[in-house]
Design brief:
269 residues; 26% strand; five-stranded mixed sheet
Length: 269
C-alpha cells in the first residue's frame, strides 16, 4: 500500500448560502482522498485552537489519517474560505489563511515526512522558504501551483518538484502544449494541467495524455481537482499506466462533484 502525506494548507470551506461549513484545503483534501483511494495517508499542518480546527481534526481522525504531527496553535485562528455555488460551480468570497501563514517544518517533521513514498503540498501552504528541505525529505514531491503562471515562481519551486499540478483554464488550447513543455524544463517528471470542463492533460517529457471529463449530475465542483490529483497520485504510486491513472482520476473527480464539500463532514453554523 503506497504511503502519502499531505503537508501544509487546510481551510474550512464556508458555504454562506447553505449556512454549512466543510473541512478542506488542497494538501488536506489530497491526503484524505488518497486514503479513500487506497493509500495509507497522513496530514501535517497547523490549525488554530477553535471550532474550525476541531472540525478538521475530527474529520481527519474519523477518516483514519495519522495527525500526530499536526500542531494546534493557541491564540491563532484556523483558515477559512467563503464559498458560493453558481449552477454547481464554486465561487469564492472572503478568506483568511489564519495560522497557515505561520507554518514551519521542524527537523522532527522532516524526519517524519521521510517515512512516506510521496509528499503533496501546494502554493497555499507557505512552504517556499523550506522547499529545498522538503524535497530532501521527500522520496517524491507533488506540488499544486493552482493558476500561478509566473515563471519566477516556477523557478523558485519547480526544480524541487517531481509531479506538478497546474490550472491552465486561462491558457488557449493552442498554447497549452508549449506551456507544459516550458514547465517541464524547470525540473518536474510529470506535469498535470486541468482545464475544467475540457478535462486534463499530462506531459511526461515525451508524450501528452488527454483525459476528458465524465458526465455526472453536478452538485458542487469544489474538491473535484483535488480528487483528480489524489487518485492520479495513488494510481501512479501503484504503478498504473498513465492513461489508466488519468481515466480513474477522472472517475473520482466526477464522483466528487455529486456532493457538497471536498469530502463531506458538513457542519451547520
Amino acid at each position: 500500500m503506497p504511503r502519502l502525506i499531505g503537508v501544509g494548507d487546510n481551510t474550512v470551506d464556508t458555504y454562506t448560502h447553505l449556512r454549512m461549513r466543510f473541512p478542506g484545503g488542497n494538501a488536506l483534501n489530497v491526503a484524505v482522498l488518497a486514503q479513500r483511494y487506497g493509500a495509507q495517508a497522513a496530514y501535517l499542518g497547523w490549525l488554530g485552537k477553535d471550532e474550525r480546527g476541531e472540525l478538521i481534526l475530527n474529520a481527519l481522525r474519523q477518516e483514519g489519517l495519522d495527525v500526530s504531527h499536526c500542531r494546534v496553535v493557541e491564540g491563532a485562528s484556523t483558515a477559512y474560505s467563503e464559498v458560493m455555488l453558481v449552477d454547481g460551480d464554486r465561487v469564492f468570497g472572503k478568506s483568511d489563511h489564519g495560522v497557515c501563514t505561520m507554518f514551519h517544518l521542524s527537523d522532527e517533521d522532516l524526519a517524519y515526512i521521510a517515512e512516506f513514498d510521496l509528499t503533496h503540498t501546494s502554493i497555499y501552504s507557505h512552504v517556499e522558504p523550506q522547499i529545498a528541505d522538503l524535497k530532501r525529505a521527500s522520496r517524491l514531491l507533488s506540488f499544486d501551483l493552482s493558476q500561478n503562471l509566473d515563471e519566477a515562481y516556477w523557478q523558485l519551486t519547480l526544480p524541487y518538484v517531481d509531479i506538478a499540478f497546474v490550472s491552465l483554464a486561462e491558457v488557449s488550447l493552442d498554447e497549452l502544449e508549449a506551456f507544459l513543455r516550458r514547465m517541464y524544463t524547470f525540473g518536474p517528471q510529470l506535469i498535470v494541467a486541468t482545464r475544467g470542463a475540457q478535462g486534463a492533460w499530462l506531459f511526461d517529457g515525451s508524450h501528452f495524455y488527454h483525459q476528458g471529463v465524465l458526465p455526472v449530475q453536478v452538485v458542487d465542483t469544489l474538491g473535484a481537482g483535488d480528487a483528480f490529483a489524489a487518485r492520479l497520485l495513488v494510481e501512479y504510486l501503484k504503478g498504473a499506466p498513465l492513461s489508466a491513472a488519468m481515466q480513474r482520476a477522472a472517475e473520482s473527480a466526477a464522483q466528487n462533484c455529486t456532493h457538497y464539500g471536498a469530502f463531506g463532514y458538513g457542519q451547520a453554523y
